[in-house]
Structure formats: C-alpha cells, structure tokens
Amino acid sequence: MAYNEELAKRIQLALKLFPASIFRDFQEKKMFGGLAFLYRGKMTVGVIKNDLMVRVLANKMNALLAKNYVRPMDFTNRPLKEFIYVSEQGFHTEEQLQQWIELGLEHARSKLNEK
Questions:
Q1: How is the chain split among helix, strand and coil, in percent rounded to 5?
Q2: 107-to-6, 43, 49, 64, 73 alpha-carbon distances in Å
Q3: Could you report the per-residue pLDDT of 2-22, keeping only the tens digit for each?
Q4: Which stretch of DSSP H or E encloses residue 70?
Q5: pLDDT tens, 68-82?
Q6: pTM of the entire predicted model
Q7: How far is the C-alpha of 68 from the C-alpha of 7, rounded, in Å?
Q8: How far is CA 74 from CA 78, 85, 109, in A?
Q9: In a 10 Å sphere around its CB, with 0-12 CB exposed, 13-18 middle and 19+ buried, how is residue 61 labelled?
Q10: Which helix or strand (DSSP H or E) is residue 23 part of?
Q11: 110 in Cβ contact with 58 (< 8 Å)
C-alpha cells in the first residue's frame, strides 16, 4: 500500500461537505508516492503512507509545529516550505480532519488571491 486508502476516502467524503462552488474545484492527483488533493491546481492536503500532508500558510507554521502529532514534511530529507505531516493520532475524528483540510484550503485560496 503506497498510501492509506481509508484516509483518502475520509478526505473525499469531507470535501463533499463544502459548498458545491468549492467542492467542484477539487482534483485528485498522485504525487509524492501518495495522493494529493488540489483546489484549482493548488495543493491543499494529501495522503503519504499513513500521514496526512497539509499545506499551510507560512505565518501559521510555528504554531502548528508546536502541536502534538505534527512535524515538518521532510519528503526530500529537508523540511519543505509550508508543508507539514500530521500523524494518525492528529486526525482521529472527522472534525479534526476537516480542520486540517480547511487549513490546506486556506493556503490554496491565498495563493489564488481568494478569500
């Protein structure tokens, strides 16, 4: 298993909770040996092995990295800018997962100059 397919299904279901105007602009793409979810071409969240990958705004990185179960995404053996990994304990509930997805969407929308 290259990535946690159950987590991918949870993300797919969570995305359906967004208004249609947002949901329809999400795409799935195999990346980093896992599955990424892009909003209008901008990466938001993804699944790499059993971890949730989240793209976050730079000004939120330090606070998020101070949380339990969160670490820098070091896919290339160096931390990637504005990317974090969240281990399984950090997204047990659907509410927790939804919060991470919203952070990823916030990042994508900022790059698209959306509010």
A1: 40, 30, 30
A2: 24, 8, 22, 14, 16
A3: 899 999 999 999 999 999 999
A4: strand 70-72
A5: 999 999 877 888 889
A6: 0.94
A7: 19
A8: 5, 8, 24
A9: middle
A10: helix 20-23
A11: no
